[in-house]
């Protein structure tokens, strides 16, 4: 009965990772040879890993990446692509985010810019930063509407839901829809 109460209390405290680890240790006779400190340490490590996994899942879902499977490790840095492996490795550290800098990827249509941008966004999520994939045409349309209506709350209206994101991937839809899709705010 004590074990069920403990499991119930762990779940009430939202310590699901600990609850699972506790159940697994109770089922394994090999874990009884470990000291209490070792077993408790394993349970705490399991909870931390579970929380990290859940956080990454939440960040990735909120990012709505066009290519969520894109990852830094899969970027093709062959000489023929014109990508410098050292630059990719430096950008993978996400120091550019911490330093409030930007990345602009340019190249011909079909070169993989969006995929690479999604890989950097995924890496940012893995390091705990929030990200968001937005089609540039959609953002430009929201900006155009807000500009046309002369709202005093212009920045809040346009960017309120996205302002907490540390990384924004803007997909250049203007090329897909022609230059007319790009706004002129003059």
Give the key terms.
single chain; 186 residues; mainly alpha; Rossmann fold; 2 domains; two-stranded parallel ribbon; 9 helices; elongated
**What is the class of the largest domain in the CATH system?**
Alpha Beta
CATH architecture of the largest domain: 3-Layer(aba) Sandwich
Low-confidence stretches: none
**Average of per-residue pLDDT values:** 81
Based on CA atoms alone, the radius of gyration comes out at 23 Å
- The percent range for helix content is 40-55%
Number of strands: 2
Find the structural class using helix and strand composition: mainly alpha
Strand content: 5-15%
Q: Calculate the terminal CA-CA distance, rounded to whole Å.
A: 72 Å
If helices are DSSP runs of H or I spanning 4 or more residues, what is the number of helices? 9
Order of helices and strands: HHHHHHEHHEH
Task: Please describe what this structure looks like.
The termini are far apart. The chain has a two-stranded parallel ribbon. It has nine helices and two strands, in the order ααααααβααβα. Helix content is 54%, strand content 5%. It has two domains: 2-62, no CATH class; 72-181, 3-Layer(aba) Sandwich (Rossmann fold), CATH 3.40.50.300. With 186 residues, it is mainly alpha-helical. The model has no long low-confidence stretch (mean pLDDT 81). Residues 9-148 form the IstB-like ATP-binding domain.
Topology summary:
Blueprint: H1 2-12, H2 16-27, H3 36-63, H4 85-92, H5 95-98, H6 113-126, E1 131-135, H7 136-149, H8 154-159, E2 167-171, H9 174-177
Parallel strand pairs: 1-2
Task: Summarize the entry for a quick read.
This protein has nine helices and two strands.
């Amino acid at each position: 009965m004590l074990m069920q109460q403990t499991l119930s209390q762990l779940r009430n405290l939202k310590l699901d990772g600990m609850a699972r680890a506790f159940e697994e240790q109770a089922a394994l006779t090999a874990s009884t040879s470990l000291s209490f400190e070792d077993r408790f340490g394993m349970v705490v490590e399991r909870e931390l890993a579970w929380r990290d996994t859940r956080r990454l899942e939440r960040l990735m879902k909120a990012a709505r990446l066009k290519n969520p499977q894109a990852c830094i490790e899969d970027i093709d840095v062959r000489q023929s692509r014109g990508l410098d492996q050292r630059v990719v490795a430096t950008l993978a550290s996400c120091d550019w985010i911490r330093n409030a800098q930007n990345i602009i990827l340019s190249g011909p249509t079909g070169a993989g810019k969006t995929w690479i941008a999604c890989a950097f966004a995924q890496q940012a999520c893995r390091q705990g930063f929030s990200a968001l994939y937005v089609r540039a045409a959609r953002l430009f349309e929201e900006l155009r509407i807000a500009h046309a209506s002369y709202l005093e709350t212009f920045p809040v209206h346009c960017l309120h839901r996205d302002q907490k994101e540390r990384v924004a991937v803007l997909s250049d839809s203007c090329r897909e829809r022609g230059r007319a899709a790009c706004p002129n705010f003059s």
